[in-house]
Amino acid sequence: MTNTITIAAIRNQIVLLGKELEFASGIRAVAAEQRMKGGVSGPDMLFDLLEKTICSDQLFESYHDPLNGEEGDLVLGEGVPFPSLEAYIALHAHYGKEWLAHAMTDYCAHFGSVELRSDPEQFAKDYLERSRDNLNHAEKPAPKESPFVVFGREYELFKGLRPLALAATFPESGEPIDCFGRMVDECIDRLGDDYFRQGIESEDAFVELFSVCFDLHQQHGSSDWIKQGLLGYLAEAKGLSDTDAEQEADRLIHESNEWIALLDSIGARGATKRAVYLTDQLIKHKHLTDDYCQQLASELVSAAA
């Protein structure tokens, strides 16, 4: 065990970790222990590794964030759980490869209740066993799709409207708008609620799409990122030749631009945008149920009012 950092200096990290294992599931900490065996360069890298290991509810456990859908009584902070990730890295630097067991034992011995202090090694062992069991039985995250597939699907299935609306929120340089809610609001204002939400059922999926679009924008610049994203999709997922991919990308972009121009011409009239969406759905699916026709008629009357 190293002594480069005193217990007093890392008290907060010990307490934070101890609370996670005592009052929450401990899944994030034991998953971090596993992933850190291969070495990590910092909290950003650890976050990326944990995203592939545990689900969002577990990664964001005890933090107030939209990605934590199961908030409990223990609150460690707001937003992304970097305080916890930084604590794991600091404790690893202090204790070495057995950091989790040593830190939990010190928590039980020095910062826990009277009961925990009566036998800190046994209580630490019990909490670690429970946390590892929780990890073993936890739901595993679904494998992430290729960014090109996420992006290309937007054009093949949903006219590419969301990427075009998102592009308006991206600056020419630097970070995007640092507010997920504001990005959603600006996109809904431009597209209408129906076109913005079609085909996406979870907030995680919105976050993934936003991230893919922003990364493409940063890599290829504001003038070419959409075409480069489509070319990547058509080559990777569809296996098209360079020539065929170029032609198909141009076709998809042209169609998308026509649709966004239509919605822009409507402006802020949400009822009209909904009527356009419903008409589009009727044409696409080619079925006319009585309820759907009645809904469309009502929307069209509202739009004309």
Describe this structure in words.
The protein has 305 residues and is mostly helical. It folds into 3 domains: 11-137, no CATH class; 147-268, no CATH class; 269-305, no CATH class. It is built from 17 helices and 2 strands. It has a two-stranded parallel ribbon. The protein is elongated and about 70 Å long.
List keywords for this structure.
two-stranded parallel sheet, 3 domains, mainly alpha, 305 residues, 17 helices
Outline type: elongated
- Secondary structure category: mainly alpha
Helix content: 55-70%
The residue-averaged pLDDT reads 84
**Tell me about the biggest sheet?**
2 strands, parallel
Strand/helix succession: HHHHEEHHHHHHHHHHHHH
Tally of contiguous helical segments = 17
Number of individual domains: 3
* Topology, number of strands: 2
Write the layout of secondary structure elements.
Elements: H1 11-23, H2 27-36, H3 43-51, H4 56-59, E1 63-64, E2 77-78, H5 82-95, H6 99-111, H7 114-118, H8 120-137, H9 147-158, H10 161-167, H11 180-191, H12 193-197, H13 203-220, H14 225-236, H15 242-266, H16 270-285, H17 290-304
Parallel strand pairs: 1-2
What would you say about this model in short?
It contains 17 helices and 2 strands.
